[in-house]
Amino acid sequence: xxxxxxxxxxxxxxxxxxxxxxxxxxxxxxxxxxxxxxxxxxxxxxxxxxxxxxxxxxxxxxxxxxxxxxxxxxxxxxxxxxxxxxxx
Length: 88
Hints:
Elements: E1 3-6, E2 26-29, H1 33-39, H2 53-61, H3 66-77, H4 83-86
Antiparallel strand pairs: 1-2
């Protein structure tokens, strides 16, 4: 069985200050790597607009300004955002 060295944060190593030592590592069988990667939960969206990025692109493609999109959002979705938030 082939082993691969991975830098996986260990619970007991949390909060350890900076040092010149390498990060704690454990050896995992290569076949377990996909299982471990799938076990990591996805990050939540950082922006309340992230779930709607395709819709924003579509409205921009239809020549809507960011101000118009913000007004549409407030009227139909109930989400108040400034137009400057859309293009950032």
